[in-house]
Specification:
Length: 536
């Protein structure tokens, strides 16, 4: 990524408002048509400042835009609402030139004031955004309140200047995150807490209908600023659909993409049928599935207990439950992520050693606890396997099988002693090791409503994380070595029990067109709706 960032900063200043430099329209694409996507659970919110789960990620991505974006189906940065930017020699001041004539769904033209309002809104404590911590390098973050970020300034209607308190190797990725997306102030003020049900952005689609518990309908934005896309007229998302039923409907030609993927119980059957296997799309992902332990609550306030949980897990057996679609994990970072500590071995499966650690912590007779789990298959079955492994060392864990939104709520509130993250397991927001720290292991993420469900806060590691990100080059070997060391130290504290790193599998109907990478898009999880189309 260093070459792109270094070589294009100046070139972007001379760029035209088209995206010809990074996207060539698919010559086979046909405009028009509607597709049907299914999910088991309803969508929690479409507010980009709040929404932070894999299910609503791609929907929010199609409703809103940020200053930066990614080339479809890749992790390569490209300009978004900002057609160009410059960076000062000291790496502290970014000046973004906005595209002229970009319109919100309500018809009003977007300006630099909207960019500032949107960034200020995310860091305002009243918003309770789980993404506020991403903006920690912007000047004024520590003192940010309702008055906003002092480091974000409007220069003129089409120019925004953002000053950092330190160089930040991840900053342009942050400007491509959902949390940075630009919202219409008047719509937020009109709907208040219900803005997430009444979103107004600049994206390729606008929300036409939301019948709670039944469906959401997204319609094509005729004023979208990227010529030629989106291709589809509308997208209907049907919720309350069991994954097995969704698969049957796909087989009957009634559904185009089952949003929850291939039901694990049907995976072998699907892959064994050539006609169905031909419609399967497989993609790598920067993913880790893990168990959180709330370090602020007994008995998980003792590191020996947390290490014992790590040693109790038979990860090879758990991987078999999902038909081998993963590899056992020994640290927060997945193996394909820069900064992965290749020499680190983690905690070996050792039930007897785990029992000894429990006795050392004063729990020789074990204890009772609760394990929260998302109620979509295979997660309850995985949780049962974890439950059995814990029982073997004397820990009795009752399972709390809940809808995704309820598990997320309990995690953010700190009321769940343990959570199996499956279905919500961390998939990187962007391909950088820092992304597995701040939101889910850093002190900022441990705040009320945050995604650090272990409530682990190590201020010394927070300081090391800041040093690791204070590089201009995100791929500096010294920086990546620092991140490796940070994650090894985290595993010494064991707030998590990493379980596996999973591959993504999904299916599409025969009429769906577009590159397969769009259906397992690494940053528009799970689907990049803006660039898919139908062939009939």
């Amino acid at each position: 990524m260093k070459h792109w960032l270094a070589s294009t900063a100046l070139a972007l200043c001379l760029a035209t408002p088209t995206l010809a430099q990074d996207y060539t329209p698919d010559p086979n694409a046909k405009a028009g048509g509607d597709i049907i996507i299914t999910y088991k659970d309803d969508v929690a919110t479409l507010d980009p400042a709040i929404g932070y789960d894999w299910q609503n990620w791609s929907m929010i991505k199609s409703l809103f835009d940020g200053l930066m974006d990614y080339v479809p189906g890749t992790t390569t940065l490209r300009p978004g609402l900002a057609e160009s930017y410059t960076l000062s020699e000291d790496g502290l001041v970014y000046t973004f030139k906005l595209r002229a004539g970009v319109k919100f769904h309500n018809g009003r033209e977007m300006t630099a004031e909207d960019v500032k309002y949107s960034l200020d809104r995310v860091v305002n404590p009243e918003t309770q955004s789980p993404g506020a911590g991403f903006f920690g390098s912007i000047a004024g973050f520590e003192a940010a309140g309702p008055e906003g970020l002092s480091g974000v300034k409007v220069i003129d209607p089409l120019t925004v200047e953002i000053t950092l308190s330190r160089p930040d190797a991840t900053f342009l990725h942050v400007m491509a995150l959902n949390f940075s997306y630009v919202v219409a102030k008047e719509a937020v003020e009109e709907h208040g807490a219900d803005f997430g049900k009444n979103p107004v952005g600049t994206g390729a689609y606008s929300l036409a209908e939301w019948t709670i518990g039944q469906r959401l309908v997204f319609q094509k934005n005729p004023d979208f600023w990227t010529p030629g896309v989106p291709y589809l007229d509308s997208i209907t998302v049907e919720v309350g659909q069991e994954p097995v039923v969704a698969l049957l409907r796909l087989q009957n030609g009634e559904v185009d993409v089952p949003g929850d993927g291939i039901p694990p119980a049907k995976f072998v059957e699907v892959m064994g049928d050539p006609d169905q296997a031909a419609r399967v799309v497989e993609g790598g992902q920067l993913h880790t599935g893990y168990i959180t332990m709330n370090v602020t609550q007994a008995p998980f306030d003792k590191v020996e207990v947390r290490k014992a949980v790590n040693m109790a897990l038979n990860k090879d057996r758990i991987v078999q439950i999902i038909n081998g679609r993963a590899v056992p994990a020994n640290q927060p970072l997945p193996p394909s992520m820069p900064g992965y500590a290749a020499d680190y071995k983690g905690y070996a499966y050792d039930p007897e050693g785990a029992k000894a650690l429990l006795a050392e912590a004063g729990y020789a007779d074990g204890f009772e606890t609760e394990l929260y789990v998302m109620n979509t298959d295979p997660n309850p079955r995985i949780a049962q396997a974890i439950q059995q492994d814990l029982a073997a060392i004397g820990i009795t864990a009752s399972l709390q099988n809940l809808a995704q939104a309820n598990v997320i709520e309990a995690g953010g509130a700190g009321t769940a002693p343990m959570i199996w993250s499956g279905g919500m397991g961390w998939i990187a927001d962007f391909p950088d090791p820092s992304n597995f720290y701040g939101p889910i292991l850093g002190c900022a993420g441990a705040a009320e409503g945050g995604w650090n469900w272990s409530k682990y806060c190590n201020e010394a590691l927070d300081a090391e994380a800041i040093k690791a990100d204070s590089f201009k080059d995100p791929n500096d070997p010294a920086r990546l070595a620092m991140w490796s060391e940070i994650y090894v130290k985290i595993m010494e504290d064991a707030p998590w029990a990493p379980v596996f790193n999973e591959q993504r599998y999904t299916m599409k109907s025969p009429r769906m067109g577009g590159d397969d990478a769009l259906y397992v898009d690494p940053v528009s999880i799970p689907i990049n709706y803006d660039y898919v189309y139908v062939t009939e």
